[in-house]
Design a protein that fits this description.
The complex is a heterodimer of chains A (about 375) and B (about 350).
Chain A: H1 2-22, E1 34-39, H2 49-64, E2 68-73, H3 80-91, E3 94-99, H4 105-114, E4 119-123, E5 132-137, H5 139-153, E6 158-163, H6 168-184, E7 189-194, H7 201-213, E8 218-222, H8 227-234, E9 238-240, H9 246-251, E10 255-257, E11 259-261, H10 264-276, E12 283-286, E13 293-295, H11 304-319, E14 329-330, E15 336-338, H12 346-350, E16 359-360
Helix pairs in contact in A: 2-10, 3-4, 5-6, 5-11, 7-8
Chain B: E1 2-8, H1 16-38, H2 43-55, H3 58-83, H4 91-108, H5 114-143, H6 147-169, E2 190-192, E3 195-196, H7 198-215, H8 217-227, H9 229-234, H10 239-266, H11 277-287, H12 292-315, H13 320-337, H14 339-342, E4 343-349
Antiparallel strand pairs in B: 1-4, 2-3
Helix pairs in contact in B: 1-2, 1-13, 2-3, 2-12, 3-7, 3-10, 3-11, 3-12, 4-5, 4-6, 4-10, 4-11, 5-6, 5-10, 7-8, 11-12, 12-13
Classes of the chains: A alpha/beta (about 375), B mainly alpha (about 350).
Amino acid sequence: MKKLSVVFLIVLMATSVVFAQGAAETKVQASGPMKIGVIYVSPPGDMGYSYMHDQGTKAAEAYFGDKIEVIRMEGVPEDDRAAVAMEQLVDAGCKMVFANSYNYQEYMLQVAKENPDVYFEHCSGYLKNDNMSNYFGRMYQMRYLSGIIAGKMTANGKIGYVGAYNTPEVVRGINAFALGVRSVNPTAEVRVVWTNTWFDPSLERQGAVALLDSGCDIIAQHQDTTQPALAAIERGKYAVGYNADFRAIIGDDKVLVSPMWNWHNYMIPTIQSALDGTWKSQEYWGGLEDDMIKLSEISPLVPADVKQLVSKKLDEMAKGTFDVFWGELKDNTGAVKQKAGEKMADGDMLTMDWFVEGVVGKVK
Amino acid sequence: MMRFIIEKRTTKSKYSVFIVPLVSFAISLLLGAIVLAASKANPFAAYKAMFEGSFGNIRRIQYTLREAMPLLMCGLAVGIAFKLKFWNIGAEGQYVSGAIGFTWVVQFWTFLPPVLLLPVGLLMGIIAGGLWAGVPGTLKAQWGVDETLTTLMLNYVAIGYAEYLYIDHWKAPFGNMGTPKFPDAAILPSVWGRVHAGVFFALALVVILWFILYKTRWGFELNMIGKNPKAARYQGVSIKKNIIMAMLFSGAIAGLAGAIHTSAVAQKLTTGVNGNYGFTGIIIAWMGGLNPFGSIIVAIVMAALSTGAGQLQIALKLPEAMGAVLQGLVLLPLLAGSLFNEYHLRVIKKGAE
C-alpha cells in the first residue's frame, strides 16, 4: 500500500516533467511590443511608495497600449539579488528597466555596463551611465507645504516624523518639513525616529507609537506604508501622509494632507523617447514645473486661512520667487550652515547630512 | 476499519533516505500545483519557469551555485551541532558575526600588506563566528542554559549590531547603504563566471566534515553523545568539552560562510548580510540527513527554489509572494517526511491484530 503510493507519486512527478516540456510556449517575438522591466522595493499593495510607482506604470500601460509590455518584479531586496533580478529582466527581453529605490543604484550601474543595448532608469539615486539615467522629484517642496499645515495644527508643538534611512533624500524631506513647521510656529519641534527600513509595516508603526508615547500630537512619515499614519489616527491624533492620498485610502479627515508623486509624468515621456529612439541618459530632478509632485486635497479640518497660506506659498514656488532652502539656515546645534540671501545649490541638497534647527534627532 | 500506528523503525531502511525526500518533494509539487491552479496559473508552466530560472542557462546555473554555497556551509555548520542534539539555531547570527569580523579586518587593518587581507579577514570571520557560537555553547555546558533560546536571541543581537555598523558607524559617506566597497585584494576571485572561489572552501568542508564525523574518534564521540549521552558518559566522554568544541566548530563554519559571501558577493557590509542563509541552513542539515554529502544536493535544491522564484514574476506575472509560498510548501512535506526515516507507518486492519 505504501509502496504503491510511492510508485504513484513518482510516476506523477515524472509525467509532470514531461507535460512541462510539452507546455513550452513560443517565446520568439522579434517585433512585438517593447518589453519594459519594473523593479519595486516593496509590493504595490503597500498603498504608498511602490503603489504610486505602479500607478505611474499603469498610466504608461494605458497610454501606450500594445506598444509596450511591462514585466513587474516586486519586493526585490536592495542587495546583490537586485542585480540578479535586473539580469533576469534583460534575459526576458526587456529593452528598458526601471528600478524605484535608492540602494539599487550600484547594482543597476553594474548591470547597465554589461548590457549597453538596454536603457536603465534609476529612481532616487545619483549614479549615471551612457545607458542609465537617474530621476527623482523635488518632493521637499511639498514637504515644506505639509509642514506649514502641521505647524498650524499642532496643539503642543511636538510633531513626530518616522524616517526610513538617514539618506540625503530623507534628511532633506525632514528639513523641508521642519522649515515649513517653523515658518508658522517658530517654537515647535520635529522629533525623528529611524526605522532603518523603507518597508516594514510593523516597524513603521512601532516608530510612530514611540513618537506618540513621547507626546507628539502629529505624525509625519517617510515610509512606504500607511502604518505610521494609522497609528496616529487610532490614538485620535493627526497624521501627515506620504506618496499617496492617505486621507482617501484611510478614509479619515485626521490625515491632514499628503505630499504625493506623479510618476507617470516622467515615465510616459521617457518610454516615448525610448520608442522613438531619442532616449538620452540624464539626471532628472523635476518639480512643480513638470507636475512631478503635488499636494493631496487638504482635510476639511484645516482652517481656510491655513489653506490660503499653503496655496500662496505653492504659488510662489511655482513662480520661482520662493524656495525651501533659501536664506539663512542653522543646523540643530545652532551653527550657521547657510548665510542670509544665499540659495542652496542642487548638489548640496542632494548630499544633505545635517538637520535644520527645530529637528530633534541625529542624522548619524 | 483500519488503524494507523507510527512506530520506530527497528532497522534503518537503506532506501528511505532517498525515497522519503523524493516522495516528499513530489507531494510538495502537488500542493504547490493546487495553490498555483487556485491563482489561475498553469502549474506546469510555473514549475518550468522556476526550473528555467535556476538552471535555464549557464549564468543562472552559476547564480544557483553561488546561492547554494552559503546555504551548504550553514547547513554543515548546524549539522555538526545537531549531531550531538545541540540545537544551534544561531547560524544566522554566527554567519553575520563572521561577516562583521571579515569587514573589520579588510576595512580597518590598513597596516596589513594587501596579500594578507583576504586570509586574515577569513580567519577573523572564522574566529568571530566561533566566538558567537561559543557563548551559548559554554552557557549550556557549564550551567545548562537552554541553547535554543540563547542561540536564537544572539541572532538578533548580531543582526542588530551589523545594522548599526553599516547604517551608522561604518557607513560610507556616499553611495549605497553600507560600508565602502572592499579593496580588490579583499575580494575572493571568481572561478567560473558568478561562481567564486568559495566553492573550494565549501567542498573541502564537506569532505573534512564527512571525515571527522564518520572516520575519527571525535566524530564517534559526538554521535554517541547525541544518541545516548549516558552511555557516552560511562565511556568517559566529556560532554561539556564536546559541546563547547562542537559549537566553536559549528560557529566557525557559519562565520566563514558569512566572511566568504560578504567578500565575494556583497563586497561590502550592507543590507542583505542577514540573508536567512543561517536559518535555511537548519532545513538543509535536516533534509540532508545530517550527512555532509546529502547537504550538497539539498543546498542546491533550496538555492534553485530561490533563484527560480523570480521567473514566476517574469514569465507568469505572478506576485512576488507566490515564490515564497511555493518555497514554504516545499519545506512542509520534506520536514514532515523526514519522520519516516526514523519511523514507519503501520496499517492495522480491524481484527487482524
